[in-house]
Amino acid sequence: MSPEIKNKLTILASTEPVPHMMFMASPTISEKEYKALREAMLEFTASGPGREFFEKSGYGDMGKITEKEMQQLRPYVKILQQRLKQ
Q1: How many domains would you assign to the chain?
Q2: pTM of whole model > 0.70?
Q3: Which DSSP string corresponds to 14-79?
C-alpha cells in the first residue's frame, strides 16, 4: 500500500504479521519444474530483478515462508482448500 493511502487509514486493531500473499504449486508438476519455479520466484526480490515492481507496487519483498509462518497460515489454507472443493 502506498504511503499516501496508508497515512489516511485509522488502525482499529492489530494482529501478528503473516505473509499476505503466497504462491502454491500444483502437485501435478514435476519436482524439476517445482524447483525451477521456486528458484525463479525467490530470485525476484526488491534488491534484484524485482526492484522496479516492488518500488511501484508498494509490496515489501519476496522471500521464503518459514515454518512458523506456515503454522500461522495453516487454518486459512485449510479453509481455502475446502472452498476450492465446492
Answers
A1: 1
A2: no
A3: ------S------TTS-HHHHHHHHHHHHH--TTTTTHHHHHHH------PPPHHHHHHHHHHHHH
